[in-house]
Amino acid sequence: MSRAAGPTRDATPDAHLFPTRPYDLVKEFVIALVVMGALTVLLVAVFSSPDRKAVSLRAWARAAPSDVVATATAELAGTSTSATYGAPYNTAGPGQDLGPLHLQRWGGVRIPIHSARDLVLTPLQTVSGDTALATALTTYQRASTAQQTKWASSYADALAAVPDGDPAKAKPGSYGPVPILTSRFLTLASSGGLEGVLTTSNAFYGSNETKPLLPLTDGTYLEGQARADHLGGDQWGMMNETGNYPGQPWMWLYTFWYQVKPFATSGNADALVWGLMAALTLVLIFVPYIPGLRALPRHLGVHRLIWRDTAARRSAK
Q: Which of 233, 261, 296 marks a domain boundary?
């Protein structure tokens, strides 16, 4: 004898409290898998993020040699971004503030880096067999700090006056040994040796990429590559980090705030966005304890879209 499928009751003492019904878990899983797979393929085809190879110092030197020379000159002149950044590298800049809270300054100089010495001069000292370079290094290091800055600043102005920044087209001037130092810096970077010299391995992890990244970010080439993929600070894009894996969709809420005022126009955008995200995170954590806010799910009734047989369950009791 058969009967129609419908709510049944288990032969247990509490069966009257928990009505049951047949449920095909495998069918639901297959449907969900197919739907999510189709959505994934569709969204990847429409909104996929670029997957570019890592930009090395060697690739930078070969693709934009003029930018390398200009960056090395800025490091020597003390005008590059890293030279004027402030903590954790130096005390040259005030850093990011969150209202009266001087967050970056309070962090202190944890990774002391002298841009001219650590990023340009020390790597050049590893080059052997180059008499002209050795003489240029000696001349530069024996000069006063004011004279070193004057040489580098004058050469930086000369390079900026050339439309394409080509050092060969710079007007003659009193640049001291700076042109030789920067040209040899370009040669070292083009050979791939600069990356090895700047990469250190005296930390917990296998390598410390801080120093190789600083000159790369001080130049304009990397920013140009980023803007081409809509990854600039005033753009909204995401990039895969390694391999053909999904990007960082979880960062959308963080990066969103950089596109709206006052964050988009603030010099303290990093600190402001961090503070806002910290506040939003605290709100999320304490949702169960905030009167009114914690009751929103019940009043909105979104759960009824999933639990559709609420009325049937009530009538079965």
A: 233
Tally of domains within the chain: 2
Pair 38, 79 in one domain: no
Kindly indicate the confidence band of residue 47, based on its pLDDT and cuts at 50, 70 and 90: confident
Verify cis geometry, omega within 30 degrees of 0, for the bond prior to 172. no
Distance (Å, rounded) from C-alpha 93 to C-alpha 184?
29
Which pLDDT tens digit goes with each residue over 137-164?
Answer: 999 999 999 999 999 999 999 999 998 8
pLDDT at 37 over 80: yes
Residue with tokens 């189709």: 38
Candidates 60, 106, 114; CA nearest to 85 is: 114
Same domain, 97 and 174: yes
**Residue that terminates a domain, selected from 233, 252, 267:** 233
Of the candidates 279, 280, 258, 260, the one whose C-alpha atom is nearest the C-alpha of residue 270 is: 258
Backbone phi, then psi, for 94, in 5-degree steps? -70, -25
Q: What is the DSSP string of 257-278?
A: GGGSTTGGG-TTHHHHHHHHHH
Residues 119 and 187 in one domain: yes
**pLDDT score, position 27:** 86
Buried b vs exposed e over 16-48: b needs ≥16 C-beta within 10 Å?
eeebeeeeeeeeeeeeeeeeeeeeeeeeeeeee
Mean of pLDDT over the chain: 83
Same domain, 106 and 19: no
Q: Do 44 and 70 fall into the same domain?
A: no
Q: Each residue of 168-218: pLDDT tens digit? A: 999 999 999 999 999 999 999 999 999 888 887 565 665 778 889 999 999
